[in-house]
Design goal:
Blueprint: H1 5-23, H2 28-54, H3 60-88, H4 96-104
Helix pairs in contact: 1-2, 1-3, 2-3
Length: 110
Protein backbone atom coordinates (compact mmCIF):
# COMPACT_ATOMS: atom_id res chain seq x y z
CA UNK A 1 0.00 0.00 0.00
CA UNK A 2 2.97 2.31 0.35
CA UNK A 3 1.99 3.50 3.82
CA UNK A 4 4.72 4.60 6.17
CA UNK A 5 5.15 4.98 9.90
CA UNK A 6 3.71 8.52 9.85
CA UNK A 7 0.52 7.17 8.29
CA UNK A 8 0.24 4.64 11.11
CA UNK A 9 0.74 7.45 13.64
CA UNK A 10 -2.00 9.51 12.04
CA UNK A 11 -4.33 6.50 12.06
CA UNK A 12 -3.69 6.02 15.78
CA UNK A 13 -4.34 9.73 16.32
CA UNK A 14 -7.61 9.53 14.38
CA UNK A 15 -8.83 6.60 16.44
CA UNK A 16 -7.80 8.46 19.62
CA UNK A 17 -9.79 11.51 18.55
CA UNK A 18 -12.78 9.28 17.80
CA UNK A 19 -12.44 7.83 21.31
CA UNK A 20 -12.54 11.32 22.83
CA UNK A 21 -15.56 12.34 20.76
CA UNK A 22 -17.45 9.19 21.76
CA UNK A 23 -16.50 9.71 25.43
CA UNK A 24 -17.97 13.21 25.33
CA UNK A 25 -21.49 11.78 25.12
CA UNK A 26 -23.25 11.01 28.42
CA UNK A 27 -24.18 7.50 29.41
CA UNK A 28 -22.76 4.09 29.97
CA UNK A 29 -22.43 2.76 26.41
CA UNK A 30 -20.58 5.75 24.96
CA UNK A 31 -18.04 5.33 27.74
CA UNK A 32 -17.68 1.62 26.97
CA UNK A 33 -17.17 2.30 23.25
CA UNK A 34 -14.75 5.11 24.04
CA UNK A 35 -12.72 2.60 26.04
CA UNK A 36 -12.73 0.16 23.12
CA UNK A 37 -11.57 2.88 20.74
CA UNK A 38 -8.93 4.10 23.19
CA UNK A 39 -7.59 0.56 23.48
CA UNK A 40 -7.51 0.27 19.69
CA UNK A 41 -5.59 3.56 19.53
CA UNK A 42 -3.14 2.12 22.05
CA UNK A 43 -2.64 -1.00 19.94
CA UNK A 44 -2.20 1.08 16.78
CA UNK A 45 0.34 3.22 18.60
CA UNK A 46 2.78 0.33 18.48
CA UNK A 47 2.34 -0.14 14.75
CA UNK A 48 4.16 3.02 13.70
CA UNK A 49 7.38 2.04 15.43
CA UNK A 50 7.24 -1.45 13.97
CA UNK A 51 6.67 -0.06 10.47
CA UNK A 52 9.61 2.32 10.90
CA UNK A 53 11.90 -0.48 12.06
CA UNK A 54 10.78 -2.88 9.31
CA UNK A 55 11.27 -0.28 6.58
CA UNK A 56 14.50 1.05 8.13
CA UNK A 57 13.04 4.56 8.33
CA UNK A 58 13.48 5.19 12.06
CA UNK A 59 14.23 8.80 12.91
CA UNK A 60 14.37 11.13 15.87
CA UNK A 61 11.66 13.28 14.29
CA UNK A 62 9.42 10.21 13.95
CA UNK A 63 10.00 9.31 17.59
CA UNK A 64 9.09 12.86 18.63
CA UNK A 65 5.94 12.76 16.47
CA UNK A 66 4.98 9.45 18.09
CA UNK A 67 5.51 10.85 21.58
CA UNK A 68 3.48 13.97 20.77
CA UNK A 69 0.61 11.91 19.37
CA UNK A 70 0.66 9.64 22.44
CA UNK A 71 0.44 12.56 24.86
CA UNK A 72 -2.18 14.35 22.77
CA UNK A 73 -4.32 11.20 22.64
CA UNK A 74 -4.19 10.91 26.44
CA UNK A 75 -5.11 14.56 26.82
CA UNK A 76 -8.06 14.56 24.45
CA UNK A 77 -9.37 11.29 25.93
CA UNK A 78 -9.36 12.92 29.36
CA UNK A 79 -11.09 16.00 27.97
CA UNK A 80 -13.71 13.82 26.26
CA UNK A 81 -14.40 11.87 29.44
CA UNK A 82 -14.69 15.11 31.41
CA UNK A 83 -17.17 16.56 28.91
CA UNK A 84 -19.22 13.36 29.02
CA UNK A 85 -19.22 13.46 32.80
CA UNK A 86 -20.35 17.10 32.78
CA UNK A 87 -23.12 16.32 30.27
CA UNK A 88 -24.18 13.46 32.52
CA UNK A 89 -24.90 16.04 35.17
CA UNK A 90 -21.51 16.31 36.83
CA UNK A 91 -22.58 14.27 39.83
CA UNK A 92 -19.96 12.71 42.02
CA UNK A 93 -21.42 9.39 40.92
CA UNK A 94 -22.98 9.01 37.46
CA UNK A 95 -26.60 7.84 37.35
CA UNK A 96 -25.78 4.65 35.49
CA UNK A 97 -23.83 3.44 38.51
CA UNK A 98 -27.09 2.86 40.40
CA UNK A 99 -28.25 0.63 37.53
CA UNK A 100 -25.02 -1.33 37.78
CA UNK A 101 -25.45 -1.59 41.55
CA UNK A 102 -28.97 -2.94 41.11
CA UNK A 103 -27.72 -5.70 38.82
CA UNK A 104 -24.73 -6.51 40.98
CA UNK A 105 -26.76 -6.69 44.19
CA UNK A 106 -25.21 -3.57 45.74
CA UNK A 107 -27.32 -0.73 47.07
CA UNK A 108 -27.08 2.96 46.26
CA UNK A 109 -26.18 4.72 49.51
CA UNK A 110 -26.93 8.26 48.37
Amino acid sequence: LGLGASHASLLALSVGIASAVIASFPGYWPLVWAGVFFHLASVLDGVDGEVARCTLTESEAGAKLDLFIDRFTYLIALVGITIGWAREGGESRPSYCSDLDRFSGMRDTR
